[in-house]
């Protein structure tokens, strides 16, 4: 399956929202509450979220990318500012999702490479358990730093992973 990764634009919002909701369902069914995954307004809320982010998008704020295959968005990624002042990271990887049918094609790596700057320390939260994602991030130099939380929005247990800045 061929795909292309490119910067996200405002015209991508509907497709990005759809991927966000569909991949949550594929990945988190049984981990997140069904009422959250099946909420009738979830696609609309994700569309609003992506519209707001892309309206503000600037290299210093958010870096967003999409993967397209046959004219359809099949993956999304977003890196942005640290979650809080005084965080361990310079940038935070907030989103990296691709349809299950795209797993193993390299789309995740290409999306990751499009939004994550190796020259800055980057952190992320990954669901636990989620061995596939945790292995992917480990392969990309991320290491669990021992911080664990339960997300107040969806109740998912998450592990923070950090990758230190890499020099040339």
From TrEMBL:
Give the protein's recorded name.
N-acetyltransferase
The species is: Brevibacterium sediminis
Checking CDD domains in the record gives:
NAT_SF
Nucleotidyltransferase recorded as keyword = no
Q: Which PANTHER family match?
A: ACETYLTRANSFERASE, AMINOALKYLPHOSPHONATE N-ACETYLTRANSFERASE-RELATED-RELATED
InterPro entries reported in the protein's UniProt record: Acyl_CoA_acyltransferase, Bact_Acetyltransf, GNAT_dom
Asked if the record carries the keyword Acyltransferase, the reply is: yes
Describe the location of the N-acetyltransferase domain by residue ranges.
26-166
Which Gene3D superfamilies does the entry link to?
Answer: 3.40.630.30
Keyword vocabulary terms for this entry: Acyltransferase, Transferase
Look up the domain of life of the source. Answer: Bacteria
């Amino acid at each position: 399956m061929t795909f292309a990764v490119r910067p996200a634009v405002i015209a991508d919002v509907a497709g990005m929202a759809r991927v966000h909701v569909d991949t949550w369902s594929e990945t988190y069914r049984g981990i997140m509450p069904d009422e959250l995954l099946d909420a009738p307004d979830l696609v609309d809320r994700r569309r609003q979220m992506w519209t707001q982010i892309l309206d503000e998008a600037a290299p210093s704020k958010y870096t967003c990318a999409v993967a397209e295959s046959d004219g359809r968005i099949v993956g999304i990624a977003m890196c942005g500012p640290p979650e809080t002042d005084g965080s361990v990271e310079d940038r935070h990887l907030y989103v990296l999702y691709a349809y299950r049918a795209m797993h193993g094609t390299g789309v995740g790596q290409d999306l990751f490479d499009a939004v994550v700057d190796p020259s800055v320390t980057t952190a992320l939260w990954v669901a636990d358990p989620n061995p596939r994602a945790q292995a992917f991030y480990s392969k990309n130099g991320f290491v669990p730093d021992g911080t664990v939380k339960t997300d107040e929005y969806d109740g998912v247990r998450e592990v923070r992973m950090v990758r230190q800045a890499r020099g040339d």
